[in-house]
Amino acid sequence: MIGRVHSIQSLGTVDGPGVRFVVFMQGCPLRCKCCHNPDTWDFEGGDEYTAQELVQKAKRYREYFGDEGGITLSGGEPLMQSEFCSEVFKLCHDEGINTCLDTSGVVLNDAVKQLLCHTDRVLLDLKYCDDDLYRQNVGCSIDAPLEFLEYLNEKGIPTTLRQVIIPSVNDDEQSVLMLKETVNRYPCVDKVELLPFKKICQVKYDDMDIPFPFSHLPEPSNSKMAELEEVINSKTVTSN
Ligand code: SF4
User: Fold this and answer.
1) What is the pTM of this model?
2) What residues line ligand 1, using a CB cutoff of 6 Å?
3) pLDDT value of position 235
4) Cα separation of 89 and 86, whole Å?
5) Which of 24, 25, 104, 133 to mutate to test the pocket of ligand 1 (most atoms within 8 A of CB)?
């Protein structure tokens, strides 16, 4: 089976526990206004790999993985190539390599459920906690990622919830408290990460000659991030 891969980061440290071989899968059906990887959207782009080729490559770095590290499939949206991703994860498990899936959680079908059988941890990018914000800034309803989260909880798959903090969109205390409520509702969530909105991707939009919808918004300050970290940490959840 062939998969389309946008790019590979051999030794990543921010996409899952420990040191990881991070594969950015090509293709995404969403159009998040804060997206920093618009170059992964096109389903026809990227390079073709077999699952064996990818795992062979990942194995070269296994001495760096230690106890916690392993492989992360990110994107783009890896769920759009779930059969291929399943095969990669199965091979990783045969080799004793930990598997982590970074996803927006907008698809839940039999192939995705199969993929989740071979997934050790999910990094679920819950873009917002509000349906209107989802519809305006992602282009879909919040129902799909919540249904996905429900399923992860049912299966007891360890989950990290991640949310990008965007000034004037979701950087208020109320919004972070809503995220905290979501975290507390689902025991499978054992970690939450607030990520600062970054604009370094502007250059990609310029290269592609398309507008960056959030180009007018600033990046959040360190003090704002610290303030919101405190809100999310104040009770039952931990963050990085
Ligand atoms: S899901 Fe990820 S890759 Fe797809 S548009 Fe949103 S941020 Fe970009």
Assistant:
1) 0.95
2) 28, 30-32, 35, 37, 40, 75-77, 104
3) 58
4) 5
5) 104
